[in-house]
Amino acid sequence: MQIVAIxxxxxxxxxxxxxxxxxxxxxxxxxxxxxAAIAAAVECGAIDRGLPLADAAxxxxxxxxxxxxxxxxxxxxxxxxxxKEGALITDAGSTKSAIVSLxxxxxxxxxxxxxxxxxxxxxxxxxxxxxxxxxGRTYVLTPTREGDxxxxxxxxxxxxxxxxxxxxxxxxxxxHDLVVSFTSHLxxxxxxxxxxxxxxxLESPEYLDVAGPGLADTTRLAKSSYEIWRDILxxxxxxxxxxxxxxxxxxEHMRENLRTRQMQEQFEAGAALASRLRR
Length: 279
Description:
Blueprint: E1 3-7, H1 11-22, E2 28-32, H2 35-44, E3 49-50, H3 53-59, E4 62-65, H4 69-79, E5 88-91, H5 97-106, E6 111-117, E7 138-142, H6 152-163, E8 167-170, H7 173-201, H8 213-218, H9 226-235, H10 237-256, H11 262-277
Parallel strand pairs: 1-2, 1-4, 2-3, 4-5, 5-6, 7-8
Antiparallel strand pairs: 6-7
Helix pairs in contact: 4-5, 7-10
């Protein structure tokens, strides 16, 4: 792998470029993005130069799609005839079923391997990129054909995932979307709902002076961009509805048992999960 094209040089794409460099990648890293994003990415060292999609894809051994989900799908519809034959195309989209299903139908000359690094921030843009963003994080891969992980390109990509400090986990696309509806999408919606509820029910903004750090901690995700989350919600609706229904039922149960010992059970169950996450 000598040339990497990162399509969408924002937080994730920029961090992937920086992580490759830190891990010892000495080939060329090309960027496909807006003029402002390219300039910032070159300045911080995430890419070497920017090119149009046709030029970057035609040279690249690895094409890394790090755009919002809708734009990833738009790129997939265009990239196969532009790409070098046999190149590996992968993505970093937060949902997988819709992306993988489309890739099966439109990627013919290249190999596609769905991916989702479980890393990120509530802030956007390549200036927020970090070379260690993926270190210690799970990197989900969603192969759909036997042998998807054993091609030479895929093995090399897996090697770089290891070198940037991430841990690969293999899942089916549908299984991935169900799991992340609870582990990623529900936390975002809960944080957004909490922030909106507090904001709408305080008579004066000055009352926020009475908030402790708990409110700041639990509303951190509420700063996330709807532009990113719109596509996530649209492509994983069924699983997210299932997660929300389970969460609403739990909240209703807690509301009904504020004066009973069952609240102790809820606190203990919540503390157990929180402790597991922090081990």
